[in-house]
Structures are given as C-alpha cells and as structure tokens.
Amino acid sequence: MSLWMYVVALGPVLLVSLGTCCDYDVDKCGAWADGHIQIGILSSCYSKVESLFCLVSFVRMLAVIHTIETINNSSFLPGVHLGYYICDTCSDGSKAIQSTEHMLFENSMAPGACNLNWNPRVKVIIGARYSEISLIVTDGNFFISSKQISTSASAETLSDRLRYPAFLRTVPSDIHQTKALAKLMAHYGWDWVGMVHGDDDYGQSALHSFLTDVLNENICTAFKETLPHYLDDQNINIRIQEVANTIQTSNAKVVLLILKEELVKKLFTEIIHRNISRTWIASDSWSMSKDIAKMEGINKIGNIFGYSFITGPIPGFKEYLQKLSTPPGATNKFIQKYQQMDNKGNLTEAVDISIAYGDRLAVLSIAYALKKILDCNQTVCSGEKDFQPWKLLKELKNINFTVDNQTFYFNTSGNFVNGYDLINWVQNLSSGQRDFVVAGNYNLENKQFTLKEAIKWYNSNSMKPVSLCSEVCFPGTAKQLSKTQCCHNCTKCLEGTYSNDTSDCLPCENGTWSLIGWTYCKPKTELYWEWNGKHAIVVLTFVLAGFLLLFVNLIIYFLYRKSPVMKQAGGYIMLLIMLGLALSFGSLLLFIGKPNLHICRARQVLYGLGFSLTVSCILVKALRTYVAFLPRHRQHSMKKFYKPPVIITFGTLIQAHICIFWLIFDSPAMDTTDFPSAMEINFQCKEGSGIGFAFMLCYIAMLALICFVLAFRGRKVPHRFNETGHIILSMLIYLFVWVCFTPIYVAKIPERYSIQAAAILVSSYGIIFFHFVPKWYMALCKKKDEVTTEAYIAQACSTRSNLIHSMNKGRTVNTVREEEQEYVQNSPSLVHYCTYYL
C-alpha cells in the first residue's frame, strides 16, 4: 500500500492536528515495555506533513500492544513475557532509518559487516506500514539482523526473495488486488468499466496491472482518467470537473477508483452535486474509509464495493480502546499525545477497528514461531530466550496456524495467501451514512471470488446494474465483434445456423436446417405429391375417371365387336389404343409419392411408350381412310404401305429405342431443390439434360403431325367413313398442349411437373372423347338398320351425289346420274372399304 494513500490524504476525522511538525526526536520512539523478548514496531502516527496525527496508524499500533498484552496474560508462552519498543517513522524514509537504528542499537553495539552473530534485543520488527518505507528499511543493512513483518506494505517488489529475503507480510502483494477486482467485475458480468487513477507511481502501476488482468476476463475500459496525486496541484479542481463529466456522459455504469482517500472525497463531492449514480469499486486505500462513508449525500451515488485486506475480530480490543490507558511498567507517549488532543473523538467510531486484524495476525505469527524456538509446552518454555534473529526468521517461514476458522502461513514469497475481503457499503437509512459489511472474499490460491450474502442494489429498479459496451444478443443472434474487444453488434444467425443461450451461431446438425435468426434447427419439410395432397387427389380423380372410361369402352367393344361401328373404329386396334392410354394414365400414378431413381425413369418411359402406341394406332386409322378413298391409279402404289401390325410395331419400337438410349446416356434422376431461405426440400424428377426427353416428345409429336396431315388430306371422304375430323381434333389438342408445355419445361418453373401431368391428362382425354365416345353413340343410340354395311354404302352414294350436285351446278341431270352410276361401279375402294373394313 502506498504511503500517501493512507497518510497524506487521510481526512479530518482520521488526521488530527497537533500543532507541531514531525522533527525527529526521542519522543518518536516513545512507547516501550520490557520483556524477555522485545518486538520492535515501526508506526506511522506522525506525518512529515505538518500538524497531522494519523488515528488509523495509532489504532493499528494499539492493536499490536493489545495482542502482546493478551498473549502475556495467557499461558500461550508460559514463563515468557513479550516486550515491545515502538518508534514512529514520521511517514518518511530517512526518519524510518533513524527510528530503526535507535530501536536496534538501544543497549547494544552496532554490528560489524555481515556479522550474523550480532544479537540485538529487538528480534523482529512489525512494520513499516507503507511500501515506500519498507523498501528503504529492508534495503538497508539492517535486514541481516532485524526481520520485518509488515501488515499493510503490499508492493509487488517486496516479494523478491533475492533482494528482500528477510521481509514478510500478512497481506498479499498488489499484483493480486487487480486480479480480484477483475474477478468481481466478471462475476457480475460487467465488461464495460471506467477507471480513474492517480498520476503517481502507485496509480500507474495499478493501471497497467488492472488492464492486463481485465483483458484475461474479457473486460474492457470505457475510459481511463487521471487525477493529480498532490492535492495542492493547481489543476486539481478542473480535473475533478472533467472526470465528473466523463463519468456522467459515459455509458459505463461501473467505475473503479484507484485513488487516495482525499481525492475520492473531492470527486464524490462533485458526483453528489450532479446527482450521478453509478456502481463504484474502491481500491484498498479507501475501501473502508469512514470519512467518506459519513459524507452528506453518500447514499445517493449508488452501490460501493471495495476490497480490503482480510478483516476479522480482535477479542477485547473495542473495550481496550474505550478504556485506553498505559499499563503499569510501560511507557506510551503516543497515548499521552492522543489524550491531550481537543478533538480526539471516539476511536471506535472514527476508525473501523477490524482493519487492524492484520496487526493481530503479525503478533500471533511471532508468538507461534517463538513457541517453536523456545520449545514451549503447557507449563514452561525451556528454550534459550536470547537467540539470534535469523532463527526466528527461519521459524516464521514455517509457521502454520489457524485462527477464526482460517489457516495462516507465509508462502514462498513471504506473503500471507488469505486474499481479500469484499466490503459492501450498506446504506444506513437512520444515519444517512454507510456501514461496512463483509459480503464476500477473494481466494488467492484458487483465484476465485466468492459471495457470502446477497447484495441489495441501490438503483431505480433495485436490480443488478448492467454495464456492457453492447446490448446482450438475444437468442437467434450472434456477436459480431468490433475493434474494441467487449463491443459488438448483434447480427442474426444465417440460414443453417442457430443460437439459443450462446453468443455464437452454431451449425445445424443431423440434416436439420434453420432460417435467418432462428433459435433452433429442425428437419426441412419434404415437398412432393403426397397421396393425400390436393395435387394428388386431383390427378387421382382424373386418372380413375380415365380408367373407368377405358373400362366402359372395353365393355362396349366386346358387346359390339362384330358390328360395322367397331370394325370401322379399327377392331383390335381399338384395344391397342386402350392399352396405350392405360399406360399413359398409369404413368401419372408415378407422379404421386416421394420419387426415387426408378420411379423417375419409369414414369417418363411409361408415358412415352404408351402414347407412342396410341398415336401409332391412330396413324393406322388415318392412313386407312386416306388410302381407301384415293383415286384408283394412286391407291395401288399407296396401299403397299398400309401394314397396320408393322406400323404399330415399328412406331412403338422406335420410341422404345429412344427411351433405352435415353436411360443409358442421359438417364432421368431424382433431384432435390433445396433453397437456403426456405424450410422445404422439393423432391422432383429431373430428365437428365433434357435431350432424351425432348427426343421422346418430338417423336410422338412427329407421329401426331403425320396423323394430322393424313387426316387433313382425307377430310372430304363420306361422312359415314370419316374419322378424319376426330383425328384432326385429337392431334391438334395433343400438339397444342405439348407446344405450350415446352417453354414452361425449359423455364424450369417449379410447377412444370404439374403442367406435364395436366398435359398427359388432356392428351389422353382428347383421344377418349374424340375416338371412343362417338363410337359409343353410334353403337348404343343408332338403329340397327343404320349401321349395316349396305346402309354405309347407300349413305356413301348419297353423300357422293350431293357432292356432285354441289360441284356441278348447271350440268344436266342425265350427266350427274351417269357420274353417280360410274362412281359406284368404278369405286372398288368404297366397296372394298365397306366389305373389308366393315
């Protein structure tokens, strides 16, 4: 702990004017009591600053005296009486050396160089209280014979065993305090804090140590402000205003103050005036300052926490202070000075006496070491009492004792490792002040912060304050770090990632997926024509209706298979057409359900073969009509092409070969359309590169086009024998539907398979309604005498006469009749058509 942290800056309650400055005189070694073993004490009651008397140091000195007297009045060291010799350092290095010299050389000669056998009466010195003084005293020649135990000097340098092998202390080094502060902030999730420190070496050292420790805890500093260490600095008031402005405008709700007490008091005066409320973290220099705790308005500024060296009870000490007096046989000019003061006040009210717990521990450490050296038992200490100081140092390094349920020992660096107490400044509503309550502790060995009791938060909502650079990212978002480690932007998790209670977006696993900003993953919905889906129901309805119509047609065919109507319809060719349509309807069933490779191959091939068979049969019918009514000289040359079985077989086999090559070189496959921005996977069949599919459709279209041309060329044949209109319409429907389908398929719109199914249905129903339904009408509704062969011939003749009349107006009746007779006699094709086909 820094000298000026406790002495120069102590407030008016703890620093009392004496009217004289600290010029060194014998009064500065003004307290002693004889004993078998003398313990030296370097106190700091006086200050080199004029007219100041430090009540904190005075109380700590009295705690040492009280503990020594308590041991003397007990049987802890039977037959051994401890004495003490107290000198004041005046909080000055040179005065400290003078006091130490006076203490060690009193009634003894100065030692020679490196004389380890020199045996002064004072075996050990408790003090000095401040790091600066301890460094000077310990760095002198006195360390060879005189050992120091400090109760508050916390500079890390003093842990160097090579430079300071004889220095011990009952407090941890400063290096642990900033770690404890960082752990406290991490415990409450405060990653955005402000810091105000002094411009002295102690403040700069604490700053660098704190910045290193908070970095390990992922804590960042919102601001770092510096205040002049000396109170008489001409810019002190301006800097106080500027620091208050920084605190007020910053979004950091937690502020660490590594300052001496009087600077904190000045700053808090401005903070109270501005009505600023924050959570304040105190360094050990003011963490138990009663002067600040009694400030007017101190309850308005928010929570105050601080670490202090471990505190604890000192049995009987409060009563000792209340009845303060010098015991018989002892001298204490410090008590006399205190009792002469006009405004001395009550020590137990002016100082929190629990801070003197370390002084009690220092005396107890010496007592336990002496118990070992003096070989003490329950009744007597038989060891040599006039021993050399180095023996005591050896035993001190090995002590291990338990007090108040805590174990104490010096580690290899000469420090106690019991850590710090967390002091919570609790509001006292009746007095308007703050009381100190130990709310937790920091353990140096496991470097963990432990909270002993719940904290009451003094803010508008009575909730734990939030001090973050950035808002907490909600589930479904992740931190996107900025240049400052603790600051971030919250960005939504991308597709395929999620976050729930973490700060990062995690990838979805096991085939699951998520959309932007999701907090969970789930399997994607598989899209295809389910059997109970609306698409499937519509298609199934039309397919079943189609099969029903084919079944009706099959029944009518078998009932009227010998009639001219069915013969005219093609006879067995009609059965092949029905088979082709059945295959086409069957292919539509494969559009329903989750597709796979085999289904994708089968449904297109099934349709291609089925409809090729159908159109090949219609081609036979178109060619039959066309050839039958050609003039006689052309009929002979064309009739050799009329081979129905060959046409149907080759027409279908060619398509079969197209499909085989398609399956081998460019096979259809199952394809999934998986968009990252959707929770759906669309399962569809892909027809390879599309070339094989195009060849299949183009081949059917070519057959249909040939049918259309033949039917169109023979459209003027007699009506009774005329199926050309039906063929023309059915083929036009097919060509129109598939011409419309082609650009839709090429565009690869998601609905192309629905449109393909519709195209198959329309094409198939076109065949049924234009080829089968008219035959049903003629078979079921016409009179029998109207569907005989003779009736067909008579109708043909009548039709021919009408044609001749309409085409030969103005010609004589005899001429027309002669042509009619010649037509019947010289038209073997008509007779042949009626007798062979009907």
From TrEMBL:
Provide the leader sequence positions: 1-19
Q: Which PROSITE patterns match?
A: G_PROTEIN_RECEP_F3_4
Q: Which residues form the G-protein coupled receptors family 3 profile domain?
A: 535-795
- Name its GO BP terms in alphabetical order: sensory perception of smell
UniProt-listed InterPro entries: ANF_lig-bd_rcpt (IPR001828), GPCR_3 (IPR000337), GPCR_3_9-Cys_dom (IPR011500), GPCR_3_9-Cys_sf (IPR038550), GPCR_3_C (IPR017978), GPCR_3_Ca_sens_rcpt-rel (IPR000068), Peripla_BP_I (IPR028082)
Q: Which UniProt keywords apply?
A: Cell membrane, Disulfide bond, G-protein coupled receptor, Glycoprotein, Membrane, Olfaction, Receptor, Sensory transduction, Signal, Transducer, Transmembrane, Transmembrane helix
Which cellular component appears as one GO term in the record? plasma membrane
Q: What is this protein's record name? A: G-protein coupled receptor family C group 6 member A
Gene source species? Electrophorus electricus (Electric eel)
